DNA sequence: TCAAGCAACTGGCTTAAGCCAGTTATGCTC
DNA sequence: GAGCATAACTGGCTTAAGCCAGTTGCTTGA
């Protein structure tokens, strides 16, 4: 069976989607361009409106287009990625007084904003407890939940977990942690970050995450479960980053040992 | 507006989806369990079959369920992830004679298989050319395309790019590159890997990638654009990994410099 | 010239009905 | 007990029709 035979034997919705996809890939529909409406596509391909609609939905699911209620369907524009290098933990960045997020936002000429959504004492989930080497049957962690924006666009959600017994009564319990953020406080408590462990995965967002991050269909999230180790190679902080995958790239440069 | 008000004001397909999602999260529908059929859900919720079908589609898009033609819709089972540590490039792994992929497959009691789909001389794309520091207007690279399986299940697609002038006439042009794979040959050519750079992102798969990896809807891919640097800190190999995100986790452990 | 209202466009969502194709279970026959 | 055929189940996909809600553009009046 030739390719065009395979094409013609596909359901109409997939054929319409493929034709549109090809137009996008060939540049006939450039980034930001508006697609023909559902009704126009239905007429053009001799299909029902719902069939054309299904074709557009397939493209949205593949991350190629975004539908906007009452306005149209647009080819998604590639976003300039927020790039987080493995040097984002480096002490030399500390000298700028800026966190990695603020540094990257500045590099892109954008205004960083961090909303502290909550600071609560909690029983840790098993995966956090395991990494912080604490019990998971008592309220042994402080959970700081932050929401990061660049020019008012949500980019990432970060949950940071610290040991309660260290954090209680310190600025770690406050929205504003003071100079150099939480790492400054943790260093004063004797934890100098010497090594880090990042566990990286990708998945589709939960509805709540999609809502918080303003994600359209077809955009996954990049999750980083980060553990900071101190001079004794003991874990002292765990953070879970949930990044919009259409806005975030990670970069690791490391020696081969 | 209370949460239940927000719930009741949602379209029926989303309410049905949320109810099913809650049942999954509460364990009432455990991993591997079969959901009620479209027709049964339609009757149960007093909706049209297509409305129930849309609800199931939403769950599939969120990566929670998988529909199987003629059989039913099943709660997706969490897969044991293929975990690739940053030490996968380490020389000490070389002593085992096994590549990182084979090591991980062995750890999980699975049979690794690598299909070499092609070895071709090509003009590199700009992003590859830039990283290998070669021209992108001539056929200056060898492109090795491999497909990796664990117990006959596709896990990743890897495209490796090497300089043509180094690879021509060597085992690098053969499916079987000899002891220690391509890195053994490259070392013989004077390239000892000392540093690596991994650029990590996530996105939805192209239809072709979805086909090759056997991906159901709602599963993104994790892409790693890997560059190997030698003892002179010169790039000598670039590989693009496309991993099934439901089967792959990456781990980076590194010092803070 | 500006603002407001309305028509026409757009996508969002549902319904009823139907047919196709894959899978499973049951019953019957050998 | 095994195998085959068929019915009933399942999901896949389409159609026609309709209504709702958001947006845009045009017209009219002040």
UniProtKB/TrEMBL annotation, chains A, B:
Keywords: DNA-binding, Transcription, Transcription regulation. InterPro entries: Bact_HTH_transcr_reg, Chorismate_lyase_/UTRA_dom_sf, Tscrpt_reg_HTH_GntR, UTRA, WH-like_DNA-bd_sf, WH_DNA-bd_sf. GO terms for biological process: negative regulation of DNA-templated transcription. Signal peptide: none annotated. PROSITE patterns: HTH_GNTR. SMART domains: HTH_GNTR (SM00345), UTRA (SM00866). Residues 10-78 form the HTH gntR-type domain. GO terms for molecular function: DNA binding; DNA-binding transcription factor activity. CDD domains: WHTH_GntR. PANTHER family: GNTR-FAMILY TRANSCRIPTIONAL REGULATOR, MANNOSYL-D-GLYCERATE TRANSPORT/METABOLISM SYSTEM REPRESSOR MNGR-RELATED. This is GntR family transcriptional regulator. The lineage of its organism: Bacteria, Bacillati, Actinomycetota, Actinomycetes, Kitasatosporales.
């Amino acid at each position: 069976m030739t390719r065009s035979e395979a094409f013609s034997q596909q359901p109409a919705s997939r054929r319409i989607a493929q034709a549109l996809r090809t137009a996008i890939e060939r540049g006939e529909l450039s980034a930001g361009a508006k697609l023909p409406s559902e009704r126009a596509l239905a007429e053009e391909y001799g299909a029902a409106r719902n069939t054309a609609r299904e074709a557009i939905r397939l493209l949205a699911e593949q991350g190629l287009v975004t539908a906007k209620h009452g306005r149209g369907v647009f080819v998604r524009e590639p976003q300039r990625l927020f790039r987080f290098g493995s040097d984002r933990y480096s002490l030399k960045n500390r000298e700028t007084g800026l966190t990695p997020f603020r540094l990257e936002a500045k590099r892109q000429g954008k205004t960083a904003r961090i909303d502290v959504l909550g600071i609560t004492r909690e029983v840790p989930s098993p995966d956090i407890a395991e990494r912080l080497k604490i019990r998971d049957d008592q309220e042994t962690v402080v959970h700081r939940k932050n929401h990061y924006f660049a020019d008012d666009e949500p980019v990432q959600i970060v949950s940071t977990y610290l040991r309660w017994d260290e954090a209680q009564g310190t600025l770690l319990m406050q929205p504003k942690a003071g100079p150099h953020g939480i790492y400054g406080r943790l260093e004063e408590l004797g934890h100098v970050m010497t090594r880090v462990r990042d566990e990286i995965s990708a998945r589709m967002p939960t509805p709540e995450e999609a809502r918080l991050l303003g994600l359209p269909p077809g955009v996954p999230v990049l999750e980083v479960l980060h553990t900071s180790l101190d001079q004794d190679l003991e874990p002292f902080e765990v953070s879970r980053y949930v990044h919009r995958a259409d806005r975030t790239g990670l970069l690791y440069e490391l020696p081969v040992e």
